């Protein structure tokens, strides 16, 4: 699905839809966030966390590589792999991914690693030009694909 997110409020609505998905389903999601620098990946994560009730600061993990957030029973991980040279470097950080838990991982620059083979994977490709910003959203999971197709901004 292709969604025009030129207006920042539309990015917020898309993020809110995915926050609802995370909140209402006691499972784990992997979000693969693709796009150039400044395309809106971290902004999307920030809006998603805010929609889930996070009231603290949401910073880009560009230099720290990994940020974790805990909201009641939901564990959220935000990682930016831009500075990695190989997937082995990611393994070194020892991120604990429990696909049976309630939560999500948001991965910026996911092409730096192999996908996790999580049953609930969502690909978001952020693209922008001088006058327009869009996000292409897809999933191989049929239930999630149906959810994506119902997103209304």
From TrEMBL:
Pfam family, one: TsaE
Gene that encodes the chain: tsaE
Annotated source species: SAR86 cluster bacterium
GO biological process: tRNA threonylcarbamoyladenosine modification
Major localization class: cytoplasm
Localization per record: Cytoplasm
Protein name per the record: tRNA threonylcarbamoyladenosine biosynthesis protein TsaE
Native organism taxonomy: Bacteria, Pseudomonadati, Pseudomonadota, Gammaproteobacteria, SAR86 cluster
Keywords for this protein: ATP-binding, Cytoplasm, Magnesium, Metal-binding, Nucleotide-binding, tRNA processing
PANTHER family listed in its UniProt record: TRNA THREONYLCARBAMOYLADENOSINE BIOSYNTHESIS PROTEIN TSAE
Matches recorded under SUPFAM superfamilies: P-loop containing nucleoside triphosphate hydrolases (SSF52540)
InterPro entries: P-loop_NTPase (IPR027417), T6A_TsaE (IPR003442)
Family to which the UniProt record says this protein belongs: Belongs to the TsaE family.
GO terms for MF: ATP binding; metal ion binding
A Gene Ontology cellular-component term: cytoplasm
């Amino acid at each position: 699905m292709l969604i025009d997110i030129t207006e920042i409020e539309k990015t917020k609505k898309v993020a809110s839809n995915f926050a609802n998905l995370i909140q209402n389903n006691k499972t784990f999601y992997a979000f693969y966030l693709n796009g150039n620098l400044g395309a809106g990946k971290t902004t999307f994560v920030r809006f998603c966390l805010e929609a889930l009730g996070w009231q603290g600061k949401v910073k880009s993990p560009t230099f720290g590589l990994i940020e974790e957030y805990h909201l009641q029973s939901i564990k959220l991980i935000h990682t930016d792999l831009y500075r990695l040279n190989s997937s082995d470097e990611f393994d070194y950080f020892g991120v604990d991914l429990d696909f049976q838990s309630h939560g999500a991982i948001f991965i910026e620059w996911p092409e730096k690693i192999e996908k996790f083979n999580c049953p609930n994977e969502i690909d978001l490709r952020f693209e922008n030009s001088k006058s327009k910003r869009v996000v292409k959203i897809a999933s191989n999971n049929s239930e999630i694909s149906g959810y994506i197709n119902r997103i209304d901004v």
